[in-house]
Amino acid sequence: xxVRLMGFDSPLFTTLNHILDSANEFEKSxxxxxxxxxxDAKAMASTPADxxxxxxSYVFVxxxxxxxxxxxxxxxxxxxxxxxxGERKRGESEEDKDVKYLRMERRVGKFMRxxxxxxxxxxxxxxxxxxxxxxxxxxxxxxxxxxKKPKAIQVKIA
Length: 158
Hints:
Layout: H1 11-31, H2 35-45, E1 49-53, E2 57-63, E3 72-77, E4 81-88, H3 94-97, E5 109-116, E6 127-131, E7 134-140
Antiparallel strand pairs: 1-2, 2-7, 3-4, 4-5, 6-7
């Protein structure tokens, strides 16, 4: 509430109002998720991906127009989490600094996707190729374990 609306323009009331507003914001911040959490959630939600399973591999296809392959980071974390991160930046040349944008529809900023890989994924042989603005990450499958052959036990006569 603004105390000036009630006719109290004194510096004492203004300071008191500021202190009360700050305390209220502090209480909200203690129970709210962090800013980094919101940024990560937004980055993940705005990066669509297709996941395909083939006989011998899993293929992740992510559209990344206008991003150079050097700006994309693909890694496997915690043994089975495929993470794709990067950042799309607005033009940074000298002539771009004087530009006035009439409409900005293309997304700018960080992006991230995380996928939990199945147990049969070969995380040591992951490949990533970025061509024509499309990132394709291929994760080969491990061969199925060979079934154990029954062990014949010879019965001795006592």
